[in-house]
Amino acid sequence: MSNQVHGAEAARDDRRERDGICDARILIADDDPLCRQLVESVLRRRNFANLEFAEGGVSALEQSRSFKPDLLLLDMQMPDMSGLDVCRRVRSDPDLADIPILVQTATFDRKKMGELFAGGASDFLSKPVNPSELIARVVVHLERWNSLRELRNYRERISRELEAARRMQFELLPSFASLSESAEKASMRIASYNRPSSELGGDLWGMLPIDEGAFGLFLADFTGHGVNAALNTFRLHALIHEYKNLHDAPAALLSVLNERLVRLLPPGQFATFLYVVVDHRRGELRFASAGAPPAILVQSQSGRPRFCEGTGLPLGIEPGAKYQTYKRKFPEGSLLLLFSDGLPEYPDSFGERIGDEGLLKVLNACHSGLAPNEVIDRLCAAAGITGQATLPDDTTVICIDRRIAAGCAQALPAAEAKAPGLRRSRRPFPRMDIKHGYRC
Amino acid sequence: MQLQVDRGAGQISMSGEFTFTDHGPFKQMVAELFATTGRSVILDLSKLDFIDSAGLGMLLLARDEAKKNDRELILRRPSGQVKRMFGVTKFSTLFTIED
């Protein structure tokens, strides 16, 4: 029997060692030196070595701030400041608000006990001290405090890592510099909007330089969001850049991306993908779609917006899926809008969705003088997306505008005049604002 | 999304909106699907108003399960946004769709 008890105690001691509880800082506040010595000897016998002592309420409070104990053993009756007052004050200090406070009291007055707990005591110990009770309660509260701290640290670490991942994902998107370079070469304006639903998203878009007369533009949307979808955007980004020779061949590019993603994605997961070659030299768009929402095209200053209808299996579902390259005219004065389903499917405050048709109507009402970022603003506003709204799905919108080309001679000096201002507002690490439209 | 199961006819009627929040009911649906007897299982979509990409993904999972169990999955009478979604994504080439 005694062996068993001894064995159990040894096991408990082991666990304490392992969890590092014996390193815990314990502050013992009691005005009676004999009581302090008693508590000390009990704790030291159980290998608690990091102890400090306070001889009254005031010094208990001061030492709590300087020593930052992991646990406070507090006598209820002290001449200079009562244990209850110390308790309340300790709790009002943000650094100490959560530490375990064990109050030692000889009272069993229910009302006083109630006040004690209301004042912030974690638990109480009856006086005179019973060594087993003291150890048991100290251990329970230190373990609880340790788990709480570990959880907190873990949560902080995860959110730091998510933040880092978010930045990395943001850096996958075209930089301001590359975007303005492409836009300038093609004498067009480009604006974009990208917001993930949670911290990490499953949307990805990018521009691929082809030659002086054309560039590629893609918009991908992986099922789901969060870490899983975000990691897939990194995979896809790498894959797209592996096939540079296919950047001018939309259907062929989609076919190879599909073959690769079929092998990478588990059943039920896929990516919709829209790839458009913007050939401004020929005034033409060549595109292929893998189940993506159709782009919207306005072909002249006074033209009506129309869908660029294109169909295809989303990427990653079926091996051997075939895609088709479609062509549309894209003369000067045109406007092209790409968007992920987060925009038309956003449920506004009434639970209504604007839908693809609704976007078409908004675009129809936009006059040709609007800059592409203003067009995006109007679309988001019409869909009910406000700056504060939490998005249920990742949302990306890209607007390419060839309307300035008509007045190119006037537009260029103005753009030059704006250039220094633009440069000043550029940040080496662009902040992912709730809304950031690249304006070129 | 709401589900109505007609075991005798091997048919499940879906109504409302089929989105990422329906994962639970969907799993239940798959279980119901294989509790029925017969070669084919019919999903009646005529009352389904909306499907998002997560919903499409769940249909793909049901299709996988059907294949593994050597059953045929038929999607019946999709309309509106659901029908358009099937068109854009060419889901018609993956599923037997009956009008």
CATH architecture level-2 label of the largest domain in chain A: 4-Layer Sandwich
Shape of chain B: globular
Number of helices of chain B: 3
Number of strands of chain B: 5
Indicate the mean pLDDT of chain A: 86
What is the overall silhouette of chain A? elongated
Mean pLDDT of chain B: 89
Q: Brief description of this entry?
A:
In chain A, 42% of the residues lie in helices and 20% in strands. Chain A is of the alpha/beta class and 440 residues long. In chain A, β3, α4 and β4 (101-105) form a beta-alpha-beta unit.
Any overview of this molecule?
The complex is a heterodimer of chains A (440) and B (99). Chain A has helices at residues 2-19, 33-45, 57-67, 83-92, 110-118, 131-172, 176-185, 227-242, 250-264, 355-365, 372-383, 408-425, and strands spanning 26-29, 51-54, 71-75, 101-105, 123-126, 189-195, 203-211, 214-222, 271-279, 284-290, 295-298, 306-308, 326-329, 335-339, 395-401. With 440 residues, chain A is α/β, with parallel strands linked by helices. Chain A has two domains: 2-154, 3-Layer(aba) Sandwich (Rossmann fold); 173-425, Phosphatase 2c, domain 1 (4-Layer Sandwich), CATH 3.60.40. Chain A has a five-stranded parallel β-sheet, sandwiched between helices. In chain A, strands 6-15-14-11-12 form a five-stranded antiparallel β-sheet, with helices on both faces. In chain A, strands 7-8-9-10-13 form a five-stranded antiparallel β-sheet. In chain A, helix 10 (355-365) crosses helix 11. Chain A is elongated. Chain B is an alpha/beta fold. Chain B has one domain (2-98): Transcription Regulator spoIIAA, CATH 3.30.750. Helices cover 38% and strands 33% of the residues of chain B. In chain B, strands 1-2-3-4-5 form a five-stranded mixed β-sheet. Classes of the chains: A alpha/beta (440), B alpha/beta (99). The interface between A and B is medium-sized, with 24 and 19 residues.
